[in-house]
Every structure is written in structure tokens, then in C-alpha cells.
Request: fold
Amino acid sequence: MKAELPLHDTTHEALTPEPPASAPRYLSELLRRGLDVKLELLAHYAELARLLAREILDEEVAGLCGERYSRDKPLEGRYRRWGSNPGSIRVGPERVPIDVPRVRDIEAGRERPLQSYQHMKQPLEIGDRMEEALLLGLSQRDYGRVVSVFLDGFGLSQASVSRAFQERSRRALEAFEQRSLSEEDFVALWIDGKYLAGRQVVICLGLTMDGRKLPLGFIETTTENTEAIKGLFTDLIGRGLRFEEGLLCVIDGAKGLFKAVREVFGVYAQVQRCQWHKRENVVSYLPKKDQARYRRRLQRAYQKVDYAEAKADLIEIHAELERLNRSAARSLLEGLEETLTLHRLGLFEQLGKSLKTTNCIENLNSQLVKYIGRVKRWMDSDQRQRWVAMGLLEIEQKMRRIAHAEDLPLLRAALLREIERHPPPSEREPLAEENFN
Reply:
């Protein structure tokens, strides 16, 4: 077993590095001591904070009243010691209880506040570490209890943490809803709805040309209805989302989503239906004994790189399902072309791993649940949206680039070819005059 160092062992002092030049003079001597001394200081940092604070306060009191018991009184003896009051000082985001000396202004007949104490007790501002702790699941109710373990029962109150977090999350929501998208070049969007915080929340996740994933916006709605999602898209466009060079929109089978994409983006968007959702929808109609076999067959068909081969295999499966279960057959046929969009564009081999399903946004939703799923009671829409925005901003920092991001220029070129092949009405050739005769 590893032997413990003696409490005052000085054999390690020679190996102790010099304290940094920025260290305060009165701490330099402590920093030169051995590891055992430093560990003792670390273990009792709250008490050390009290001692330093008391020293600072005593210096100010001595400057006003003179040294204790001395006959020499500065400032013509205007100030006198007047006992003490309980108080507290800040140590990072926490507070430590101390006794605060009182000074009486004899001439003015009132107490004279200590400037050093006013500086040490500045109001709490919630910082990034506390914000992260709350998002990661440390409840406002528990925060004070956890802090009190380190600060002798004098932690932050639940109300203080709650108010500070509300204000910080309100600013985060406002920044998230207003940040400009005009500086980014987006080539694809994932759109998906998730039941979060007791409501349906539809989130839009963007993919930039350099392969980064960025949460763009969200709405709180009752269902994935067309009008609400159109409002989300309109807001994103108003904030600078450009789509004239084409977008690949990856969605599940929700009709409201599909209709909203078509009505807002028109020919500028190509829809990739999630192959995973399609496969699971189809097999859900089948008996248990048949599900695994048809799941494998559908998976093999979608894995074909060539569009014609993949479609031929799916049509063959459809014909079999017509005899086995017509509901499953109809499910496969509905939106079949949209499940093969990457195949049709000739990019399934390069980009299928990331863009053939809604997995990217499903993963985002799962992470979001980890942040907001611990809230036990949702008070109102403002609270829900603040937490969703804070969660999305936190997740955004950890998102990785998609696989094969270097092939995204190929997607942009394919989308432009589709726009040229099917131009919007305002850009089409005018009809010849004889067509009107």
C-alpha cells in the first residue's frame, strides 16, 4: 500500500516548482510549500477564503480606525470599531459565511460600510458551469444541497439559482431564435417532430457544405401540421436561410412535413424519405413470423447502389406483399420514389450513410431528452422553449461533421441539375403564341 506523506514532510519542498509570477505576494510562501500542505489548503479552501477575507476586512478597518488598542487614530479619530454582523462573501458562484466588522462614523452618526466587503458580496451571476450542471440534470432544488457540502451549509438558495437560470435561458432562447443564418451555406435539412416536454416539438437541423450540423429552429405544435411547419420554414428564410441552389430535405413519412416542404421550397427541394421509417412501417403490418425476413429483404434492396436495381427489387417485394398483406404492400408503394432520391441522384454510395435516414436528428432528439427529461413539472410554453433552446445550443457544441463531407459538392451539383431540369414557373420558357390559338 502506498505510504501517506507526513503532515509536515519537507523532503518534497525541493521538488516543488516556483509559484507563478502572477501569484499574490502573501500566497507565494504557501505555494512554495510541499504537496501535503497544498492538499491541506485545497481541502479547506472555504476556511482559507474566510481567513483571507477577514485579513482584507481587518486591513480596511485598521486604515479607518487604527490598530486595535493603539492610541494613534487616523483621520482624527473619526471612525471607531462597532462590533460585527454576520455576512457572506463570494467564492466563484458560491457564498461563504463570515463575520463582518462594523465601523461607526462618529461625526456623521451612522455606520460606515466597508468598501472591500461590498466588493466581495457582489450579486450572483449564473455562469456556464452552473448552467451546464442544471442542463445535465442537477435540479435547482439539489444545487444548494450539493454546494453546501463544500461550504458548510451555506449554499445558494433554490430561488437564486432558479431566477438566474431563467434569465440566462431567456437570453439564450432569444439569441437562438434571432441568430442569422445568412453566413452559412446549407445543402440539406433534417426535419422531425418529437414529443418533448409534454408537447409536440418540430425541430429543423441544417447541414452546411463543409459537413457541420447546426440546429436551426423549432416550433411547439400539437401535430406535424403543414401550416405550423410552413411557419418554421418561413422564419428560417427570414433569418437568411438560402435555398435557391437546392436543398435535400430528409424527413420521415409525415404528410404534413412533406406538404410543407413542397409548398415552401417547391422545385428547389428534393425530398429523401427515411428508409428506416419506411421499412419499419411496412413490416409492422406483417405477422411476427414474417417480419424479420422482409426486414432483411427491404434492407438489401435499399442497399443496392444503382437506382434501377434498388427499385426493381422493391417492386418485386411489393408484388409478393400484395398476396401476403395488401396493407403492407400499399405502405411500401406510398412515397417509394422519395425513399430512393439519393439513388436517383447517383449519390447513395457517397452520402447514403448520413442522409438516407433521419438518424442524425433522431440522435439529436435523444440527447435533448437527456437534458430536459429530468424536469418534473412544466409550468408553461416559455419554460419549455427556454429549455429546448438551451439543450440544442449545448448539443450543437458536440456535433461532429457527417461522414464523407468532402462529397457534399456532388450533392450541390446534383440539386442544381434537378432545378435546371424542372425550373420554377417564373424561369420557364414562355409558351409560343400559336399555343394560344
